[in-house]
Amino acid sequence: MSGDSGTPTNFIRQIIDDDLASGKHATIHTRFPPEPNGYLHIGHAKSIVLNFGIAADYPGSCNLRFDDTNPAKEEEEFVEAIKDDVRWLGYDWAELRFASDYFEQLYDYAVELIRSGKAFICDLDADQVREYRGTLTEPGRPSPNRERSVDENLDLFTRMRAGEFPDGSRTLRAKIDMASPNINMRDPTLYRIRHGLIHHQTGDEWCIYPMYDYTHPISDAIEGITHSLCTLEFEDHRPLYDWVLDNITIACHPRQIEFSRLNLEYTVMSKRRLTQLVQERRVSGWDDPRMPTIAGLRRRGYTPESIRSFCDAIGVTKSEGTVEMGMLENSIRGHLDGIAPRRMAVLDPLKVVITNYPQDRVEALTADNHPKDAAMGSREIVLTREVFIDRADFREEANKKYKRLVLGGEVRLRNAYVIRCDEAVKDAAGEIVELRCTYDPDTLGQNPEGRKVRGVIHWVSATLAKRVEVRLYDRLFRTAHPGRGGSDFLDDLNPDSLKVVGNVVIEPALAEAMPGQRFQFEREGYFCVDPVDSQPGAPVFNRVVSLRDSWGKIAED
Ligand code: ATP
Ligand code: MG
Q1: Helices 103-115 and 212-222, axial angle in degrees (round to 10)
Q2: Which ligand is nearest to the CA of 38?
Q3: Residue from 67, 231, 237 whose mutation best tests the ligand 1 pocket (most atoms within 8 A of CB)
Q4: Which ligand is nearest to the CA of 35?
Q5: Closest ligand to Cα 47
């Protein structure tokens, strides 16, 4: 039952509980049915976590089914990417299916509908079909071919399959009700002709392809799906889903249940728009770390756990809304806070010479890997006479609230000594190029007597530091609802969504970090080694997310 997993319940799980309690079903079968026409995004994750989560928590199973009835837009690359993403999210399917596995059965069921007088071949073209369909306020008009004989329909359907008619010249339509208030029920198209396409599974075997609304219920029923979960825009299609299953000879009749889509601020989620971003090279690819795709989030440094906990947090309901990006960011922040080892990296290095520190000394100091988890152990960091601190951690003058280094003031170098700034050396243009400081040798692990230091700042040995590239990401769009009000969503792209910082200095051992490893750079944020552009010994770091509280907290300890 749903109770033991810690997953919050929802109205769909309640329906399932009832169906198990009443004996309607003994086991639960769900499916996740992506169309392989793009990469999965965080919205799909909501559906994956729902469908696979139910299968995991109940006695049941979940299939991965590719809804591949439109070969014009579908590709093998997407099939493989989707499989990778589902596995990465932590799920495995009971069976891998393709709607195209059922093309022959779908054809046979169409013949059955024709034989029973419930489907006919229509000669109207697409524009005429639209015109005959009527509007929300006016009923439609029947196709002139609606009363064709069964024999003629059978003959024409056979010849459609055999390739005798050109694209768009004929369709197979269900014969339902041209006056239905639900336009989906006004003799919807079941099959159309598409020549010259190579289907990634069936090649050139077919030149007629079944429509989604016809394919989906039958695929669900063939697989013995008990609960067919889909997003709210299919609510109006449910009568057609049921009509198809009620009018063919098939034992299983899954229950379609709709829930609201996930919408997320500051991004777009439709595959059409995501495809456009990729094709027009607005981003580096489907896995660009700014993309809301699973592949992008993974490359950025998100964990599967954080995405699953985000999906649990947003819940499953029927009410439409837009979720704040901050919720997604909080889920990864919370997870990485617990698991990411701490390291020091200086993004905007300013050299500090500790004038009273011996020239050749290399002092090994100990730093905890995690302030709250002793089990994560400690590491060695090295202090030398010259170190780097961040340029933002120094001001010539500042009031008491400034918890960093000022001329004549003291701060602690994290995990090391207290230093005092004696002089800021400037170049001809007046820019500070170096700080000259002195250290107090009695302050390792203890505070100085009788005086207060302003705060604690991070640093890296200048002699031993390695230099790397860091990529700072911001939201891909500068408005919460890109394209709202009919404007071009591309106009809302954030021109500053990627800032590449070269010459970031890091603790030397970090140069050996492996692709996908995640760290907290103290006082800066969480970072992940980019799996695509990193080289052995030369990692590139992606900022996953900034810290909630960038430096105030550490300054207190
Ligand atoms: P798009 O309209 O962007 O092409 P889609 O819904 O057509 O998206 P599919 O590949 O058909 O994409 O979706 C597979 C499954 O994922 C469907 O069951 C669909 O309802 C679900 N899904 C897609 N987008 C979202 C979303 N934003 N929130 C929740 N579920 C979604
Ligand atoms: Mg779709």
Answers
A1: 110
A2: 1
A3: 231
A4: 1
A5: 1
Its pTM stands at 0.94
For ligand 2, the distance from its centroid to the CA atom of residue 157, given in whole angstroms, is 26
Distance 35 CA to ligand 2 centre (A): 6
Mutational pocket test of ligand 1: of 12, 47, 83, the residue with most ligand atoms within 8 Å of the beta carbon: 47
Q: Which is the closest atom of ligand 1 to the Cα of 37?
A: 10
Q: What pLDDT score was predicted for residue 3?
A: 44
Closest CA to 405 of 475, 369, 453, 336: 453
Task: For residue 40, give the ligand 1 atom closest to its CA.
Answer: 10
Instruction: Give the Å distances, CA to CA, from 61 to 19, 65, 83, 218, 545.
Output: 16, 13, 17, 18, 35
Q: Whose CA is nearest to atom 25 of ligand 1?
A: 43
Produce one character per residue of 433-471: b if its CB has 16 or more CB atoms within 10 Å, e if not.
Answer: eebebbbbeebeeeeeeeeebbbbbbbbbbebbbebbbb
Residues of each domain in the chain carrying CATH 3.90.800.10: 103-213
CB 69 within 8 A of CB 219: no
CATH node for 103-213: 3.90.800.10
The residue contributing the CA closest to ligand 1 atom 29 is 261
Summarised one tens digit per residue, pLDDT across range 476-533 is 999 999 999 999 999 999 999 999 999 999 999 999 999 999 999 999 999 999 999 9
**Cα 382 → chain centroid:** 39
Atom of ligand 1 nearest to the CA of 47: 30
pLDDT tens-place string over residues 211-263: 999 999 999 999 999 999 999 999 999 999 999 999 999 999 999 999 999 99
Tell me the pLDDT tens digit for each residue of 113-152. 999 999 999 999 999 999 999 999 999 999 999 999 999 9
* Catalytically active residues, by annotation: 35, 261, 271
CATH of region 345-458? 2.40.240.10
DSSP letters, 62-103, are: EEEEE----TTT--HHHHHHHHHHHHHTT---S-EEEGGGGH
Atom of ligand 1 nearest to the CA of 229: 18
Residues lining ligand 1, judged by CB closer than 6 Å? 33-35, 43-44, 46-47, 67, 230-231, 261-262, 269-271
The whole-number pLDDT of residue 549 equals 38
**What is the CATH code of the structural domain delimited by 264-342+466-557?**
2.40.240.10
Residue 271 CA, ligand 1 centroid: distance in Å: 9
* Residue 415: closest CA among 347, 376, 369, 362: 369
- Boundaries of CATH 2.40.240.10 in the chain? 264-342+466-557, 345-458
DSSP strand E in 159-254: where? Answer: 171-174, 189-193, 208-210, 227-231
Report residue 555's pLDDT band, with 50, 70 and 90 as the boundaries. very low
pLDDT digits (tens, 9 = 90+) for 139-188: 999 999 999 999 999 999 999 999 999 999 999 999 999 999 999 999 99
Question: Contact, 60 vs 20, CB < 8 A?
Answer: no
pLDDT at 4: 53
